[in-house]
Every structure is written in C-alpha cells, then in structure tokens.
Amino acid sequence: MMDKTTEHDYRAALDFLYGRINFERSANMPYSLAELKLTRMTRLLELAGNPERDQKIIHIAGTKGKGSASHFVNSILTQSGFRTGRFTSPHLYRIEERFAIDGIPCSPEDLLSCIETLRPLILEMDHEASLESSHGPTYFEITTAIALLYFARSKADYTILEVGLGGRLDSTNVCQPIVSLITSISFDHTRQLGSTLESIAREKAGIIKPQRPVISGVTNPAARAVIETIAEQRESPLYQLDRDFAVNYHSPTRLDESQPVAEFYQLKNGQAQKKFDSELGTLGRHQAANAAVAVAACEQLKESRIDVAAIQRGLSSTHCPARIQITHRNPLVILDTAHNVASVDALCEVLAESQQPSPSVLLFASTQEKDVRGMLQSLVQQFRTIICTRYLSNPRGVAIEEVAKYARQCAAEQNQTVEVIEAATPDEAWSLSQRLAGEDGLICVTGSFFIAAEIGKRFRHDKRLPKQNHQVIP
Fold it and tell me: Does pTM top 0.90 for this prediction?
C-alpha cells in the first residue's frame, strides 16, 4: 500500500501523463511526418541518457497478432531464464500493464519514479517546441520512453517493443532491434495507413532495419511481396511463415475442457521437417501462427538456453488477456478485443471449430472508423442474440442505435434469425446477457478494447493498488 503522500504524487504524475496530447483518443488520428516526428522521440531519449542503447530489442508490428506474439516471445524467454521487458499497448485495466518484466506489470511506485525522471525533460522539450509553434512529446512517446527507462533500470536481458500504430512513423521505431517481427497484414486504420494491403504492408515494413533479421507471418501475396522487396533492399534476412517454417493447429473438442495443440515445422527445399509439438495457452489457428512467428524469432537469438523444453513451457503457459480469453464457466464467458474484420473472423473460426454452449449471446460495442458492418456480417452467423451497447470510457464509441441497425441489416441479408437488443450501458448489457445465457450458455464480449476492458473490470479488483480514475486508452 502507498502512503498518502506517495499516492498523491502518483495521481499527480498520472494527471501529467494523461494531460499530454494523445492521438490515441482522437477520432481522426494523424499519421504523417508533420505530427508523428521520430526526431521528437529521439530527442527525449537523448535527454534521458539513451536508455535503449544497450538493450537487446525485439520489435513487433502487425495489423493483428502483435500483442499475442509479444506475449509468446516473453513467455519463451522467461521460461528460458532471461529477464524480459515487454512494452505493449493498449492496456486493459491499468497503465502499469504496458510496462512488464517477466509478465509482471511494473509497480505504481516504479511508474511514478520513471515519470518524475522524465517530467523535467519533457517540460524542457515543451519550451523548445513552443518557440517553433509546435508541441512537445505526446502521450505515446512518453510511455515508450517510460518503458525503455524502466527496462534499463530493471536490467532486462531482452526488451520486447510492440508498435502502437503502423510502424514506419511509430515512436518505437527509433530502436535498433536484433530481430523484427511482422505478424500479419489486414485492413485496419486505413485512413492513416492506406486503403490497400500493399500500402499497409509498406508502413508495417518500416520497422525493418538494414541487415537485421525479419520474421514474417504475412501470408497475403500482395502484402508479402512488399515485405520481401523492402527486406531485400535493406539486405535483411527474411524468414516467412509457410516458406521457411510452418505450423499445424489442432483445436480442442470443447472450448472449456482442454488446451489446443500445435505442431511446428521447418521448411527446406519444399520439404517439411517436424521440430516439435506443444500445447498452447491461447485458442485459435491465428494464435498458432503467432506462436510460430514467436518461435522463429526466438530461434534467431541463438541462445543455447532456448531449447525445445523451454519453448514448450513458454507456449503452453502463454495467456493473452482479452484475446479469446475464457474468464468464467457456467455460463461460459469469452472476453475478446477483436476490433476489425480479420480479428472477428478469427474469433468466429474458433467458435465454429469447437462445441459451444447454448444459448449463445453476443455483447457488442465498437469504435468510430471501424468496419462495424463487416464485423457483424460474420458475427450474426454465430449468435442468436446480439446485445448492442456503447462503452463509457472513450468518446469514440459508435452510437447504440447505429450498431443495432447494422446488426439487423446483416442478419436480414444473410437470412439469419437473430434477436437484436439495445442496452443503454455496459452494465445493463452485462446483466441482460447473464439473464439470457443462464448457467449453461455462452456470453461473448467483443468489438473493441474499450468494451472488453469495461466488462473485464467486473471480474477483477485489487484493493492494494491505488485507484485510477483515468480512461482506458485504445
């Protein structure tokens, strides 16, 4: 427990951090050199003594799967005996989740210490920027600096950095990684990254560094070609899913009874050689692909301690919060942050491959600029009841009546009999879904990080930690 003085300082530090320019909370987030200047990030790290310089960094980008891949890499390295820092975004419940050592979020006291160290440097940069009619470091740039400072202080053996948005202009891209990962390419953030898979791939491939190995889980031919071209231009060794390595996934018979199993292969001259199989701590064929990319990345580290047994322990013990996460049984509750069509399709595939309880109830809310209709076109095929609501933690939520309209249209177009219900608040939606599912049914919460976080908060509460009144960040 914090004493009152420390807790006051902690709250003041969070007020300072959350008061920064935060493009993550903007419905029209920019993505240009005019706003996302890597020079600003470089300057902040220079003032902080370049804490990133001696770190062995694993850099991860991708439309979906980068958070899961970071968890897999973290778990494998931790099980191999390496002290591992992991910077991810967004956080679900507490900002400390973004800065983890061996999977354990930093303490509020450590976060406070990092912010206090950086604050005078940020204010100095604010003054410099004001002379040029510009602005100082943004929220995400500061959290990136916090992560690198915290991991340096914690003497991490390896540092995992997850890209926030895109790659080329992301603040994490000031690093010099020992290996880069691109998990997948699909449509999301098209206003910022472009409306074609090629343009999105080009932005993600911006993390490829000259002569540093790259692991790619991208299978779309057009996007794959872009990554191949950039890797060749930068003389970066490229290892690709389904060309250099592969994975086979075996789903559990029932979602709530057993772990899935994956078989991992090396591909050479068109021949597949099985390396090992392993249980996975996460559900879904897409997660097996993320695991395969993570394994390939860890193999590039050439560490003798990363053996098959450590990899198997890491894969089977990996748990990704709110990624098709089973939180309860009776009724079976699945919490998922799917917020684009590809992620929703992966969720629906998991549900279709295994026996699931009935009745099935979907609790859904989404975010402006997302393909809400595209997501619901898949979801109406899996659920007989859809409860539409709007999260409260961020102004970017789609209006409830608009979500419900799309749900009814999608159901009618596909001749699906679906009851669509509007709930004014997440609390009302949750109570209603419990009543409709009963003890034997299924409740699935998805559509946005925000709704997953707001419902997930009902399942956890730690009185030892100071309360955070700030909103969840997308």
Answer: yes
